[in-house]
Amino acid sequence: MSNTVSAKIAKNYVNGVWVASKSDRIRSVLNPATNEVIAEVPMSSAAEVDRAVLAAQDAFYEWRTTPPYTRARAMFKFKNLMEEHFEELSRLVVIENGKTIDEARAEVRRAIENVELAAGIPTQMMGYNLEDVAQGIDETALRQPIGVCASINPFNFPAMVPLWFMPIAIACGNTYITKPSPVTPLTQELIFALLNECDLPDGVVNLVNGDEEVVNALIDHPGVRAISFVGSTRVARLVYERATRSGKRVQAQGGAKNYMVVMPDAVLPQTIGAVISSAFGCAGQRCLAGSVLLTVGDIHMPMMNQLIERTSALRVGNGLDESSQMGPVISRESLNRVCTYIERGQTDGAILALDGRQAHIEGHADGNFVGPTIFDNATPDMGIITDEIFGPVLSVMNVADFDRAVNTLELSRYGNAASIFTQNGRSARDFSYRVHAGNIGVNIGVAAPIAAFPFGGMKDSFFGDLHGQGPDGINFFTDRKVVIERWF
Amino acid sequence: MSTVSLNTFSAIMTFAIDLEDSLGRFYASAAPLAGAHAEHFQTYAAKSIKRKQRLTAIRQDNVTEMVLEPISGLDVDNYKITASTPADAAEALSTARTLEQRASRFYTDAEAKLNVTEPRRAFQKMAQENEDRLAVLS
Fold first, then answer.
1. Are strands A439-442 and A290-296 parallel, antiparallel or unpaired?
2. Which of A55, A130, B28, B29 is most buried per CB count within 10 Å?
């Protein structure tokens, strides 16, 4: 099983060519399963961001006047190239992120779906009109691209999250700058290599690797009109505040603490499968990961018994092994943080029903592995309940009834996703109606909207108005203009 | 062929792809020795290529994190196939029947473990085709 890609220094892609950053600040890119160095990535400078913005500005007029059908054809070509390189992309996601190959394939599939959505831009971008709003006067609503847009991306979905934004943005006629996570830059490098084959005019898409300096340069640059961000709540808030201060349009997705409510009438075998997938899939490093389980009434004990039995059987390992059901967390720091939270949960008085800290993976002694961990008897004030751990830790609370379950989860500052498991339509309907979360699952553990629907949270999980994907994506990346006309 | 545990969607799909590869190679190599069934063997060899393409497409198109759940209860030893080029028509026929039985059992058992419609339908169809071949080869 090959874990490695050729070690190299990642490049930026600006104005249609690959360019080496002049920065002497270099970070290593590590394979989380082994902690081997697989590449190096430069932390580019503000001046390098400026060059990318200028290239994108220069490209904007030609691109926005390119017919939507022509822009759509570029998306079809991009989609076909991604399909051809599906396995290569999936393996690269595994190698730099650590998730399982199943999860990586699912991610790449979702990334492609966003390109497919963008390929429909000729109809999706259409406006509307009305004749004779007054006698002889017609009114038309148009959509127009807004200019140079940029995204700042997280490590946990290195293929999918950047493509929540970029395909729709450029299909709408905007030009674009992507900043990948410095932890997982290689997938976007491959994706840009594919974009390089799509006959886009120079400057339409640009990639700048880096860290905080690049982020601030993008946010502050007067030539950038819109920022899309996905990351922690702390940074999402900062990005939102700073970018809106300079008049930018912003969509900033933050952290999450997603609750799963299991009603007494839930179908246990399927529910448990969905709960395990939600809590421990991607090693809990999903913004849609269910990290708190609320059992309602006397389903608690049977649920816990079966949950622990089935979770204990999960195979943790290198994601390139197709029989691995959970991979490592992203970094040694992340591993330490997860372990610290586990200790803290014990200190706070929760019952450690399953301890993942002793995970030993043969041949991967240096990997960032922590097994699935389950706490029982947690309470709403504990750190394992209030904080986003971003690791494979599930905390369980038992409540007496549905209302208490909803009231408990509404205490959370986050509102990204929430799920209910029940066979009762009334409970499901009340849950969707009352719960403040952007994505609601009914007998679904990972409530991930497909590309045609908006994806975003509420409360401290989202800052902005328009979410990524779907109609929100079209609205975010276009201005609406109304033309009122009469002819003498 | 793949010998990993059949405990994930990808592991099951890859096993199925490898299984078709093995079946195809067997039928292609055994066809000249299969006597009255030579034409059937050639057809099955060609069909395995198509089935393999179909399974590869399913693995790529139908994996979704909404329902990507751990799978248990499939023992790979129950479905592994090994076949060398037979010595004569009788051995070719006997081996073919064994392989078809194993393949049918795999697709039937695995179909029950999958929770996505398209691969389930494909596995049902493939199990039925394996049963139909068994009837022809009997």
1. unpaired
2. A55
pLDDT along chain A (488 residues), means of 10: 64 98 97 98 98 98 98 98 98 98 96 98 97 98 98 98 98 98 98 98 98 98 98 98 97 98 97 97 97 98 98 97 96 98 98 95 96 98 98 98 98 98 98 98 96 96 97 97 97
CA distance A323 to chain B (A): 5
Provide the residue range defining the domain that includes A323.
258-442
Angstroms from A299 CA to nearest CA on chain B: 21
Q: Is the distance from CB of A20 to CB of A8 less than 8 angstroms?
A: no
Q: What is the pLDDT of residue A164?
A: 98
Tell me how many residue pairs between chain A and chain B have CB atoms under 8 A apart: 75
State the CATH number of the domain containing residue A386. 3.40.309.10
Q: Which residues of B touch A110 (CB under 8 A)?
A: 64-65
Q: Are A292 and A379 found together in one domain?
A: yes
Please state, in angstroms and rounded to a whole number, the distance separating the CA atoms of residues A236 and A230.
7
| Residue B80 lies inside a defined structural domain of this protein | yes
Which residues constitute the domain of residue B111? 9-137
Quickly state the pLDDT bin for B1 (edges 50, 70, 90).
low
Look-up of token digits 């799909």: B13
Chain centre to alpha carbon of residue A267: 29
The minimal CB distance from B68 to the residues A103, A310, A323 is found for A103
What ipTM, to 2 d.p.? Answer: 0.89
pLDDT, tens digit (0-9, with 9 covering 90-100), for A423-449: 999 999 999 999 999 999 999 999 999
| B2 in a structural domain | no
Q: Output the pTM of the full model.
A: 0.95
Cα dist from A248 to A31, A147, A187, B93, whole Å: 36, 11, 28, 72
A49 and A179 both lie in a single domain: yes
pLDDT the model gives residue A1: 46
Tell me whether residue A453 is in a domain: no
- Enumerate the residues of chain A whose CB falls inside 8 A of the CB of residue B67: 274, 277, 444
- For residue A443, what pLDDT is reported? 97
Domain count, chain B: 1
The answer on pLDDT for B66 being more than 90 is no
Q: Are residues A110 and A174 in the same domain?
A: yes
Q: Are residues A114 and A199 in the same domain?
A: yes
Distance, in Å, from the CA atom of A111 to the CA atom of A398, rounded to the nearest integer, reads 37
Chain A residue with Cα closest to B7: A323
A6-46, pLDDT tens digit by residue?
568 999 999 999 999 999 999 999 999 999 999 999 999 99
Is A5 inside any structural domain? no
Residues A346 and A249 reside in one and the same domain: no
Q: How many domains does chain A divide into?
A: 2
Selecting from A274, A276, A325 the residue whose C-beta is nearest the C-beta of B8 gives A325
Q: Yes or no: say if A48 and A56 are a contact pair by the CB < 8 Å rule.
A: no
| Subunit contact B65:A106, Cβ cutoff 8 A | yes
Helix, coil or strand: residue A65: coil
Active-site residue flag, A287: yes
Residues A277, B67: C-beta atoms closer than 8 Å: yes
* B32 secondary structure, DSSP code: G
CATH of the domain at B41: 1.20.1260.10
Interface contact A105-B60, CB threshold 8 A: yes
Task: Name the A residues in 253-282 with CB < 8 Å from any B CB.
Answer: 273-274, 276-277, 281
Clarify whether residues A243 and A267 are in a common domain. Answer: no
Asked if the Cβ–Cβ distance from B66 to A446 is below 8 Å, we say: yes
Measured distance CA(A313)–CA(A325) in Å, rounded = 10
Whether residue B59 lies inside any domain: the answer is yes
Residues A415 and A470 in one domain: no
